[in-house]
Amino acid sequence: MTEEMQTLAIAPMGNLDAYIRAANNWPILTAQEEKALAERLHYKGDLDAAKTLILSHLRFVVHIARNYSGYGLPQADLIQEGNIGLMKAVRRFNHEIGVRLVSFAVHWIKAEIHEYVLRNWRIVKVATTKAQRKLFFNLRKTKKRLGWFNQDEVEMVARELGVTSKDVREMESRMAAQDIMFDISSDEEASEGKIIAPVLYLQDKTSNFAGSIEEDNWDTHASDKLNDAMLSLDERSRYIIQSRWLDDENKTTLQELANRYGVSAERVRQLEKNAMKKLRIAIED
Q1: Given a cut of 50, is residue 115 above it in pLDDT?
Q2: Which H, E and C letters describe 114-172, residue by residue?
Q3: Mean pLDDT, the chain, as a whole number?
């Protein structure tokens, strides 16, 4: 097999039929050949031996991937995920345990395909724990045979799979749910009321989020400008403005300030007026 065909076999791209033909054309290894290649990989790190082990087992990945065609996912993607599992199996294969690579690799191939199916079958994950994943695949096989479950069938499946009836019902409900488009696919569907897309009811029209951010930014800006302007005043003028306008409680009178600084109330009013004028100019700059 040419280098081009080897590359095609490792990564199924383009024509799927051509890939499958390339995988099936690679000769199956005898037990002695497989053992010799595994020894070369294990003891010498021979990557050519690893490639031969992988290429000679691609046909088995194709066979396993076909069992998952009912999920509506691209067959090429299922095969590619299975190939990843095969590569992991080759890396971990111990030729001394006395089993053929294909028997050892089945677990790794299926595990990668399972992960891919669960990630892509629905936008929202239907199974996240190990127990839920096992229930998902076993339950789907059973549903092909029985259809929608009645209570007796739920209890029977729960016993067979070693889970509770509640687990079976919950997973059955998740599997029956369909993804909904966030937006409306066409004006016709919207006008006829066929689809109630989430875009129509998820928006909180009572909230003006952008306006709130803009207002907060302006408040922060104004506060910063005021602080900078206050620092430009002399200490007495700053205290007068602070005590007359910025303190929330016990605002100081003109007479109290006059007594504090030993001047007339009119003089305090003039100082306050001049300070306010300076603040206005500083803030507007």
Answers
A1: yes
A2: HHHHHHHCCCCCCCCCHHHHHHHHHHHHHHHHHCCCCHHHHHHHHHHHCCCHHHHHHHH
A3: 76
